[in-house]
């Protein structure tokens, strides 16, 4: 989906990505506009799907989710029914924050957030009980260097 966004739309999006809790007055002042046009632009971007939603970013460690694993999956299964079962399994697991199908030697990569290595093992055991997987490699993130939800505008 490509939407025609002008300079002001992009400024509004940058402000919303930085802090969506800002008032319309604050956003309008920052982008050099008034409240009503800013609201109309935001409404239009929601209607056209440019803005998909609004959320809160929670600190994982505040919830005891101190371990972040990147899980590399290779599979010998590529049939539609296996893929459907695999995707349903991933979507049902709240530990899976992201899942991507890849080109190359690795078929899928998952970003999994759990309390510790024992919790990861429980996740892993549940995953392989649900779907047949050829090879799984788990990489523990030692330090998060950069994480953002802000897209480049």
Automatic annotation (TrEMBL):
Entry-linked Gene3D superfamilies: 3.30.70.920, Winged helix-like DNA-binding domain superfamily/Winged helix DNA-binding domain
Alphabetized SMART domains for the sequence: HTH_ASNC (SM00344)
A Pfam family matched in the record: AsnC_trans_reg
MF (Gene Ontology): sequence-specific DNA binding
Keywords recorded for this protein, A-Z: DNA-binding, Transcription, Transcription regulation
Gene Ontology CC entries for this record: cytosol
Protein name (database record): Leucine-responsive regulatory protein
Species the sequence originates in: Actibacterium lipolyticum
Organism lineage: Bacteria, Pseudomonadati, Pseudomonadota, Alphaproteobacteria, Rhodobacterales
Gene: lrp_3
């Amino acid at each position: 989906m490509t939407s025609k966004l002008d300079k002001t739309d992009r400024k509004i999006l940058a402000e919303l990505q930085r802090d969506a809790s800002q008032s319309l007055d604050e956003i309008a002042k920052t982008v050099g506009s008034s409240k009503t046009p800013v609201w109309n632009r935001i409404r239009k971007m929601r209607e056209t799907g440019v803005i998909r939603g609004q959320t809160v970013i929670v600190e994982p460690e505040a919830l005891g989710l101190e371990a972040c694993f990147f899980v590399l999956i290779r599979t010998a299964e590529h049939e539609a029914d296996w893929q459907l079962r695999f995707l349903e399994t991933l979507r049902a697991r709240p530990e899976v924050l992201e899942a991507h199908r890849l080109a190359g030697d690795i078929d899928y990569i998952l970003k999994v957030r759990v309390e510790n290595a024992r919790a990861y093992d429980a996740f892993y055991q549940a995953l392989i009980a649900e779907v047949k997987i050829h090879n799984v490699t788990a990489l523990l993130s030692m330090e998060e260097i950069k994480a953002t939800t802000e897209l480049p505008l």
